[in-house]
Amino acid sequence: MKTIRSPLTAEEIRRFLDATIGSDQPCPRCDTRQWIYPQEDENGQMLGLSITDASGNISGVYTTIVLHCANCGFVSPHAKSVVVNWLNENPSG
Ligand SMILES: [Zn+2]
Fold first, then answer.
1. Which of 5, 24, 50, 80 could form a disulfide with 63 if both were Cys (CB 3.0 to 4.6 A apart)?
2. How far is the CA of 55 from the centre of ligand 1 (A)?
């Protein structure tokens, strides 16, 4: 199996969204359809959500791909593992 390279590109994220929920979904807050796509840097760094234990200490990071609305700033996070698994199962070309 061809394994997706890192970093992910905005185009790969758009391809995943087109095949799942549609990349032209309206923003649930303001109804515009202008989403800003993240792009990983050369080290594969992308926004993550912290996982904390019962004491509030950070115990891990849940890596996410976060799109945001260009108009109102609403953020839409997607689990990176789901996106990467889909891209691995659906290579382009
Ligand atoms: Zn919006």
1. 80
2. 34
